Amino acid sequence: MRKVFGDFELTVEAGYFRTSQIVVLMGENGTGKTTFIRLLAGKINPDNQDQPRLNLTVSYKPQKLSPKNIAGTVRHLLQTTILDQFIHPHFRSEVMKPLAIDDLLDLQVAQLSGGELQRVALVLCLGKPADLYLIDEPSAYLDSEQRIHTMKIIKRFIFNSKASAFVVEHDLIMAAYLADRMIVFEGNPGISATARRQCSMAEGMNDFLRHLDITVRRDPTNMRPRINKYKSSRHMEQKKAGVFFASQPCKY
Ligand SMILES: Nc1ncnc2c1ncn2[C@@H]1O[C@H](COP(=O)(O)OP(=O)(O)OP(=O)(O)O)[C@@H](O)[C@H]1O
């Protein structure tokens, strides 16, 4: 698939995805992740119109959230857009409660903070039944604790609903937690880039981090990824071995 936008050209290599699987899109700013998500969402068309269309229902959370023209409260918005899920006990306990949406119900949508709006936007996205969820930067505006909550909610929701998801995520730790598979975007930001064929999370992370000259180890106590200090002995050792993202704590 190909898309030219002014001076920018995106090429997408052919790939596949499965149910209950999350594909995380990683790449530098301006390499076309949002463009790709918008192509999948049908918001824009590829240049090569002979592309087979995805015969799937999609639900899309855009990167930029614009509440200013939405009148009324969060309760009104949710009741008028996702009523079935809004009153469904399972959705309430699995998505709305952990995102603390009840605290926001009586607030005006137009007056929500960035983080509050992000939580509402995620509920709206997951509240729409779909085969494919397209979620652009779910952790933007959230603090670190909310990010972890949010990632757990998305992971559990996609697994249990047997849907699939493509998620744009800049936070390395969150990306590593979320991803079953990964698509790495490579190229010259704002000029031309390629969305590589999807690969395993470890492979994708390794490619992305090699490009940035960053190495990540695993904390042996909790397995969380930790970024090595640049040019530290650990960094140099991993770099020499070509292990930019260590999936096991034992060696690094
Ligand atoms: N509507 C448009 N018209 C012209 N150019 C556009 C349009 N939308 C995006 N672009 C250009 O396409 C390129 C890729 O943008 P895109 O937002 O897809 O990248 P991204 O990887 O999602 O970036 P970020 O991580 O910063 O969100 C940029 O150079 C951008 O200026």
Automatic annotation (TrEMBL):
The keyword ATP-binding applies. Pfam families: ABC_tran. GO terms for molecular function: ATP binding; ATP hydrolysis activity. InterPro entries: AAA+_ATPase, ABC_transporter-like_ATP-bd, ABC_transporter-like_CS, P-loop_NTPase, RLI1. Gene3D superfamilies: P-loop containing nucleotide triphosphate hydrolases. Residues 1-212 form the ABC transporter domain. Keywords: ATP-binding, Nucleotide-binding. The keyword Lyase does not apply. This is ABC transporter domain-containing protein. It comes from Plectus sambesii. The lineage of its organism: Eukaryota, Metazoa, Ecdysozoa, Nematoda, Chromadorea.
